[in-house]
Amino acid sequence: MSIIRSERYAAFFLLAAAALGLILANTAVGPAIMGLQDAHLAIPGTPLDLSVGHWISDGLLAIFFFVAAIELKHELVAGELNTVAKAIRPAIAALGGVIVPSVIYLIVTAGSGYEGGWPIPTATDIAFALGVLAVFGRSLPGRLRIFLLALAILDDIIAIVIIAVFFTESPNLILLAAAVVGVVLFGALSRQLHTRARPFVMAAMLVIGVLTWSVVLLSGVHATIAGVALGLAMALKPAMRTRHALEPVTNGFVLPIFAFSAALVAIPQVGVSELAAPFWAILIALPVGKMIGIGLGGWIASFFGPKGQRPHLTPLSLLAAGSLGGIGFTVSLLMNELAFARQPEIADEGTLAVLLGSTISILLSAIFVSLLARQHRRQKAASAVIHAT
């Protein structure tokens, strides 16, 4: 169980699942697997009728967003983002990491008709970014690790807002009102988990959570937003216990299944020159745009706040932060699916671009984080020698 909780192993499972999906999609069994993904599964007596792929992206992934929302709440209430002073620096860096990739995407796709995919390179996969940090940055100073963690978390918040605002068409307001009621009840019940009625409360919360997810799905809003709302509404202490219990499920099952499903893409049999503009836009914007945007934002942010509380952001640390931000992976794949839902050929090219761009960012971040960690070890050793003499 501890292996599945490990950030480094979670990143490995995610990458292995995506690689397996891409490989199988381009073998003889590929059409059969992709056909299974398109098969519909309906729940009798309800209006819920989704393909296997959508049960994964709308259903299973909501669990991941529920867990992520709990972590967001912890950081906002009792963690490293609980004051404006703490949040302002990573917030500026995260904002730069959204604006620059978006601009690059829009420049590359200008006049192509595919400008609507601009959110795809704005996302950071927090699970993968933390996995790279866990593997290559174990000796980094605490303040810098906190900055990188806060940056990834704020990037997740921006991604959630983008999904809610830009990928929702004509929502059913009555159903959304019902979902709000469900979220309020869920939050109120979570504050009764310390009582003797805990088993009944847990059962009621499970039923209300599922109903709320269903109502959000039917309202026209992407169903993962239900996971976010429920996670934020839950009382913090029981929420953290729930997060701990669900962490192996999200790391070992939910995220790998989604990565496998999203990567089931047949590589287009076209020449490089025939690839559509979104492919190149995403491929450039993820590793390059994120590095420039986060690096520039981080440099600007380094001038904010009391000097004693500022993270020491050297050019190398900014490169490390920017390359970590370029690992779009899970959330970028979801945005690609939403942006090009009616253009499957472009969506397939977008998936390949996300995988390639994220891989480039993984390699770059592994190099920069390793160099940064080595630099810190040398400084620490030199300081120890000085103190010893």
Automatic annotation (TrEMBL):
Membrane-protein topology: Multi-pass membrane protein
GO-annotated molecular function: sodium:proton antiporter activity
Entry keyword annotation includes RNA-binding: no
A GO CC term assigned to this protein in UniProt: plasma membrane
Keyword terms: Antiport, Cell membrane, Ion transport, Membrane, Sodium, Sodium transport, Transmembrane, Transmembrane helix, Transport
Domain of life of the organism encoding this protein: Bacteria
GO biological process terms, semicolon-separated: regulation of pH
Pfam family, one: Na_H_antiport_1
Primary location recorded for the protein, binned into one broad class: membrane
Catalytic activities: Na(+)(in) + 2 H(+)(out) = Na(+)(out) + 2 H(+)(in)
Keyword set includes Signal: no
Family recorded in the similarity comment: Belongs to the NhaA Na(+)/H(+) (TC 2.A.33) antiporter family.
Protein name, as recorded: Na(+)/H(+) antiporter NhaA
Native source species: Okibacterium fritillariae
